[in-house]
Amino acid sequence: MKKNPTLFEAIVPLLILIGLIVFNVNYTFGDDALSGANQMALLFGSVAAALIGWNLGFKWDDLLKGITKSIHSAMPSVLILLLIGSLAGTWLISGVTPAMIYYGLDVLNPKIFLFAACLICIMVSLATGSSWTTVATVGVALMGIGSALGVNEAITAGAIISGAYFGDKMSPLSDTTNLAPAMAGTDLFTHIKYMTFTTFPSIIITLIIFLIIGFSYDKPIDNSIILDLKTAIGSKFNISPFLFLVPIGVIAMIVFKVKPIPAIFCGALLGAFFAVGFQPDIIEEIRNEGGYFVNSYMAVIDAMTTDVSIAIDNPIAADLLSSGGMSGMLNTIWLILCAMIFGGVMETVGLLQRLTRAMMSFVNSTWSLVSTTSLSCIIMNFTASDQYISLVVPGRMFADAYKEKGLAPENLSRTLEDSGTVTSVLCPWNTCNAYHAKMLGFVENPWAFIPFCFFNIISPIMTILFAVFAIKIKKLVKAQ
Description:
By secondary structure, this protein is mainly α.
């Protein structure tokens, strides 16, 4: 007979995970901890949770079913990750990403750059419904522009991620925006409408902060650096406004409700076709073993699957003009799989639920219920290492509590997104942080950009403040 876990049993795997990660980062592997050590920490935490489950009466088949279910839920993310790797590769060799950098250098300057970068990512992520796609495309280009302008890279990443998560949270095309109301028991557009009350103040404050940072920037612009970078890019690529048809095409597909996976794959293929048509010299540089058709095919496959770099004298451009393709995503996928194993065992044995229930003892008012829900979402992001679990488990656990308090379900769905979706990137071993660190060049130091993700930090604070002051807290309508 299966027994319920105690609070101590629920905490043990978490303590083991956090202890190992702290040891890995601070005493042994340092910046290289995400290349395997932290994945093993997740597995050791999974073993601890499994042993506790075995002691509670769970069999291996129960645990395996939970692990399989958890990994299965992450498969769309894994596929997107692989396809974005291929998209990044073809957008590099086609000149799309270089063109974004090239033209961006003409219109941006340090004083408005952070504000503009955040705003651009807001628009793109609203259209695509994906922070991942936004970061992998315009985010990568904006990192290059910011570097050329001499803006701190960690602050640039914070602006990009802040904007990307606003759109991810508010877009009806986003998976988390659909998942949160489903868990809470409300409909999609009621959920989005209710989120505007907390989300718009959060993003306005964020934009003001980036504007202040920009205008306090007093480092003189070295125009020679920008000119050298533009000259280097222009010497290697045929830069043309027509290249923007590729990202416009991807955004259009998703706006017209093409699912993200086929849309991203089509984007990668569009990049491949534009590479063949616009960049014959790049094709020949990557592969020069036969006729142009053979070289084109091999160069495109290389760009989609493996490491590709463009030889260039300019050191800044050299850092920008490289891509790992699908293979460059494998380490991040490894982390995701280990995180889902940990989350699967923890949820199957009931340890995640036990942690959440313990927090209900602090609930005696509306604001304390919202605060407890918010804290639970954050804890899930730091323990289960995945934003989906941070929405699903608290959503399941607190749905009845909101009804008992006479609160409409959109209060819960809003809190889930304000505290679950956006805080996932604030945890260095969370799948979202691992992804964004990979795409923006912070694999060796995934903590660096966290303090500058102002929107992600402000959002849970804003939802709690609204509850404390009883602002826009909708009550259940009693049936007549």
